[in-house]
Design a protein that fits this description.
Blueprint (H helix, E strand, L loop, with lengths): L5 H17 L6 E6 L4 H15 L2 E6 L10 H6 L6 E5 H9 L9 E6 L1 E6 L10 H10 L3 E4 L2 H14 L2 H4 L3 E4 L4 H6 L5 E5 H4 L5 E6 L8 E7 L6 H11 L5 H6 L3 E2 L3 H5 L2
Parallel strand pairs: 1-2, 1-3, 6-7, 6-8
Antiparallel strand pairs: 3-10, 4-10, 4-11, 5-8, 5-9
Helix pairs in contact: 1-2, 1-10
Length: 268
């Protein structure tokens, strides 16, 4: 893990000073619901925010969509508290339309590409082109994909684009809740498809690489303030922190491309 830079700390302490000037209230508890795509970078960045601001961040993890107990829509439906939602951009957009997220609080944070993994030490297939991906999928005995944005694309678009949807019905499985990399590491799937940022933290796998450009589907992860938030200002400060240029190296190291900057957040 790379150490947090001095510039990064300076940025965070700047946020802390602004919060202290804005309010003499005691430190806030910021409740966050976040999907897996940004989780690795988030886990590294948030402790620095807590140390600098005195705020406590309470995090609930779950997919951006789906019906599992920890899925963000299900958590909100049963009334779990939330100040900040960090999830797939189009899913956050749906929440804005439903009035569950404050529209002008949305910030697009990162772009996240889909990658392919095999069990550590297993042969790595050629994935350099759409035809190569097609051959690898037909040759594999078992395939796993997530129940979130990347998996929706793999199962409803990519297989059809390659003309192998029928061949995939029996051997390609959607994996709810569990990281796809863990399924591959345990030997329960030969090939696993998920965002690179969600594959990188998993031990026991080798990441073959990204999908080739003609098949790639970039997922945007976005953040917004929940309409039920009790700490919207502290929530905005957290989003600004995650969107800062100083946070970019951590985000890039986790396998994603930063989009937002602190200046764009401050303009809202």
């Amino acid at each position: 893990m790379k150490p947090i830079s001095t510039g990064f700390r300076a940025f965070v302490f700047g946020i802390a000073a602004a919060l202290m000037l804005a309010s003499a209230a005691s430190a806030a508890e910021v409740r966050v619901m976040i999907s897996g795509g940004l989780a690795a970078a988030y886990k590294e960045l948030v402790p620095e925010f807590e140390r600098a601001t005195g705020n406590k961040v309470i995090t609930a993890y779950g997919p951006s969509m789906g019906t599992t107990a920890n899925a963000i829509p299900v958590r909100l439906e049963r009334g779990e508290p939330a100040d900040v939602l960090i999830m797939v951009g189009y899913a956050l957009g749906d929440f804005i339309k439903q009035g569950k997220v404050i529209a002008d609080s949305r910030v697009d944070l990162v772009k996240s590409p889909i990658g392919i993994a095999v069990k550590s030490g297993a042969p790595k297939p050629d994935i350099s082109s759409a035809d190569a991906i097609k051959r690898a999928l037909l040759a594999a005995k078992s395939i796993a994909y997530s129940d979130s944005a990347s998996g929706v694309y793999i199962s409803t678009e990519m297989f059809q684009k390659l003309g192998i949807a029928d061949e995939m019905k029996d051997k390609a499985k959607k994996i709810p809740a569990t990281p796809v990399g863990e399924i591959v590491a345990h030997g329960d799937a030969e090939l696993g498809f998920q965002q690179i940022s969600e594959l990188k933290p998993v031990a026991g796998i080798d990441i073959v690489g990204q999908l080739p450009p003609e098949l790639q589907k970039i997922t945007v992860f976005s953040a917004g303030i929940a309409s039920v938030s009790k700490e919207p200002e502290a929530g905005k400060a957290l989003i600004k922190f995650l969107a800062s240029p100083a946070a970019a190296p951590v985000i890039i190291n986790s396998g994603m491309e930063p989009i937002a900057t602190a200046s764009t957040v401050g303009a809202k």
